[in-house]
Design a protein that fits this description.
- This protein is an alpha+beta fold.
- 32% of the residues lie in helices and 30% in strands.
- The chain contains 10 helices and 21 strands.
- Strands 12-13-14-17-18-21 form a 6-stranded mixed β-sheet, with helices on both faces.
- A hairpin with a 2-residue loop joins strand 2 and strand 3.
């Protein structure tokens, strides 16, 4: 393994560097030390020097902590902290290192079935963890946690990483977890028992005036099929217009987002991504779409895949109502390492079909309408209904 090889090289360099003799060119470097003589090619020696210079400070820190800390040191925990710190140094809230256990629980959320308490949340511009939806009948709903509450701590521990706090909340079915959160001006703590949560990402109904309504709370594996079924049912029931509600949708699987976009767009680009070298990949819709005139609802809680969908529809002439979206327009690739841990790394940026960037900008609605949190009136929904009259 490359990691083990580099670690071995670091120790070799540390032991023999003072006695190294480099003969130059393609000749070997010879180390004379306590373990005898070791001969390596010159190029490998230079690589060893680079590795040592890069990580020698980390090795010094490790030795000092191990020798001087007032309690016994957990070597595994130290190394895990170093891995997390390396990725955190990017300053990117969407990139992270996950242990094997964290990665397994993270993967479960993509299927829409996991053990937890039934809350969906996002990280706002101030770094706070804002609850955007609560699954009906879930432990969180029964305890009174609701939309717009702010998560403060899990089992008494505060977090700064979105994935890490999510992993802390999820766990084995039947186990307990303490959630500390802010509701309005009051701080509250509740102990909840984790349950198997089956997430339903699509809800639909027929509103007055034969206007169909479909709300997508997130994009999971089942979203595309569930949306198609809901849309067909509304069409069969005689809907003459449609409201697509993407408010407080924190995103999810891009492929599911494209499946939904395919119901609204003719053949063409839904979104494209570019890496730092300018390499481009397109996500395309197939021919065929609904004839229903559609208005889209968004707000500041609409992020990632929901912004991709909103931007694609806006570029194709659909009207957007609500507030400017969150502005997460980057794509992460997750790679599982040999020991089961994983690296989630931001590698590309999204652009709408017309080339508009989403990241740090969001999608600006055609009709800006803000709901009053102290009122039960949904002004955004009313505006959408007005546009469809």
């Amino acid at each position: 393994m490359m990691k083990d090889r580099k670690k071995t090289i670091i120790y070799l360099v540390a032991a023999f560097l003072a006695g190294a003799v480099v003969t130059g060119g393609t000749c070997a470097a010879v180390f004379n030390g306590a373990l005898g003589s070791v001969t390596v090619p010159a190029q490998e020696y230079r690589e060893m020097q680079d590795v040592y210079e890069r990580y020698s400070k980390l090795d010094q820190l490790y030795d000092t902590v191990s020798a001087a800390f007032y309690k016994d040191v957990d070597e595994e925990a130290l190394l895990e902290g170093a891995y997390k710190g390396l990725v955190a140094g990017l300053g990117d809230p969407y990139s992270s290192y996950m242990t094997a256990d964290e990665y397994e629980t993270w993967k479960a959320t993509a299927t829409g079935e996991y053990s937890g308490v039934g809350i969906t949340f996002t990280q706002d511009q101030d770094g706070r963890f804002l609850v955007v939806s609560v699954e009906k009948g879930s432990p969180a709903a029964e305890a009174g946690i609701k939309e717009d509450d702010i998560l403060l701590a899990v089992d008494g521990k505060e977090y700064s990483d979105l994935d890490m706090i999510g992993n802390a909340i999820r766990g084995d079915e039947g186990t307990s977890v303490e959630i500390t959160y802010m509701s309005g001006e009051r701080e509250k703590s509740v102990t909840l028992t984790r349950e198997l949560i089956v997430q339903h990402s699509v809800e639909s109904e027929m509103l007055e005036g034969d206007i169909g309504y479909i709300c997508i709370s997130s994009f999971i594996e089942t979203t595309g099929d569930d949306f198609t079924k809901a849309l067909k049912q509304l069409e069969d029931d005689g809907a003459r217009g449609l409201i697509l509600d993407l408010r407080n949708n924190g995103g999810g699987l891009v492929d599911s987002c494209v499946e939904v976009a395919d119901e609204f767009l003719d053949e063409g680009t839904v979104v494209y991504v570019e890496d730092r070298e300018g390499s481009r990949r397109e996500y395309d819709a197939e021919d065929g779409k609904t004839d229903l005139r559609t208005v889209v609802l968004v707000n500041e809680g609409s992020a990632s895949a929901s912004e991709i969908l909103a931007a694609a529809l806006q570029d194709n002439g659909f009207e957007i109502v609500g507030q400017t979206t969150y502005g997460k327009g980057v794509i992460q690739s997750t790679v599982q390492l040999e020991d089961g841990s994983a690296l989630k790394l931001t590698i590309m940026q999204y652009f709408s079909p017309e080339g508009n960037a989403i990241n740090d900008k969001g999608v600006t609605p055609d009709h800006e309408v803000e709901n009053d949190k102290d009122s039960d009136t949904d002004r955004q929904l009313q505006e959408a209904l007005k546009l469809l009259q």
